[in-house]
Every structure is written in C-alpha cells, then in structure tokens.
Design goal:
Length: 257
Amino acid sequence: MVTIKSPSEIESMRIVGRMAGECLETMMKLVKPGVTPLEIDKACHDWTIARGAVPATLGYNGFPASLCVSVNDVVCHGIPGDRPFKDGDIVNLDVTPKLNGWHGDTNATVFCGKVKPEAKKLVDLTYRAMWDGIRQVKPGATLGDIGYAIQKLAQANAYSIVLEYCGHGIGREFHEDPTVSHVGRPGQGLKLKAGMTFTIEPMINLGQRFVYVEDDDWTVRTRDKSLSAQFEHTVLVTDTGYEVLTLRKDENPEGPV
Ligand code: MF3
Ligand code: CO
Ligand code: CO
C-alpha cells in the first residue's frame, strides 16, 4: 500500500530528511586515506544519537552498523570494517536516521584522495542520473518516467544499471511501497500523487550489471569487480513537482558531485 502523507506528517519527514542530509554531509567530510569505515560508523552513531534520533540500519534485519559503507566494487549494503580507505577509492556512505518514528534516507559516493578519471566519470554520471530521475517527479508522472530518465543517461554512456536493488517508499517504515526501479518505460507504472514520499537511489556499474551477495549476507558486489557508484535522496511529490527532503546545504544539483 502506497501511503499519502498528511501535511503534519510531511513536516515530520522534512525534519528527519534535513537531519539525514546534515548527517551525510558531516560523514562525507571524514573520508580520507587511512580512515577506517568503522571510525565513520562510530561518528555516525554518535552524531545521530546526540540529536535524539536513532540510526535505522542498526539491527535492521540484523544489519550490524549505523550506516552502510560501500567501497569501489561494493554496490551497496557494505558493513563498516577496519580496513582503511586508500587513495583513489570511491566510497559510498548511506545514512538513515529515524526521528520521532519517521525515516530519512540518503547516500552519496565520495572520492578518497585522487581518483582515476574513469572513476570520476562514473560517479559524476550517477549523480546526474539520480537528478534526471528526480526531475521527473510531479503529480501525474509515473514511476516508469523516473526509471526511463535514469536508464537513458546510463545507457548513453555504456554503463549498466543494477536491477536487483531499487528505491522505495519511506515514512514510518524504512522501506514501504512502492518499489522505485531505476529502469522503466515512459508513462508506465504507478502514477505519482502529491504527498507520496520515496527514495531514488540508482546504482550504476562501470562494467556489467550482475551482482552477488557476499558470505556476510549483506555486502553486495559487482560480479566482474568493476566499480559501482550510487546516490540517493528522499523525495516528496508536491502539488507542482517535487521537494528533495534530504537536500544538503553544500549540494549543487547541476554541478559535479
Ligand atoms: N539505506 C539503504 C537503502 O537505501 C538500506 C540499508 S539496509 C541495511 O535502502 F540493512 F543494509 F542497512
Ligand atoms: Co533507500
Ligand atoms: Co539508503
């Protein structure tokens, strides 16, 4: 069931969305060669708790950490470990604070030190693809319009889109209906209505689209070991278009990441 949020529920989503954006912005600045994912996990946990929220990933279906940290060929759901970041890594941080029963979900892929041009190109394109998807959002548009916009940009560059993991409705639940695919056909699928809230979070691979889950039951990697990038925002359908609830103060939708 796709829920329509009331004005007061939307206000709660705005508050936690803003918090998610601030949390991500803070964590992004910590990524440097020599820093470990576990250090970011601790920082994220403390930052969130200090603001009266909880990290929704912690204990979610048994996930053991306060955020996901996905490096290089890890597509998503990386469990923070003690292996330090290296110069040239691309690092996705995915945070989901829960405040007063409401969730905000956002992620970004950042550069650790100096990365290769091919990595930068993949990350920049993935960011643009997320925004192309977001710009489709308005009442009467469909989920297929969002997927198509993302797919078009990725395929023009011969990158591939991960199909197994999707965006999702969000609100009182971390993951609600609808499922938001990052491929689609214009005009197909669920019609958007004002008051819907969902994430758009494309995962785009430099190589083939195929992925597998590691023995830890969480970490998702590309089969061909190619790099994978992702960005995510939580979006509200407004009467006239969209509002990005997790927008960061430092963020420029037009610019490079
Ligand atoms: N934040 C992820 C998403 O965007 C979900 C992480 S679930 C976890 O949907 F259990 F892996 F943390
Ligand atoms: Co999400
Ligand atoms: Co997320």
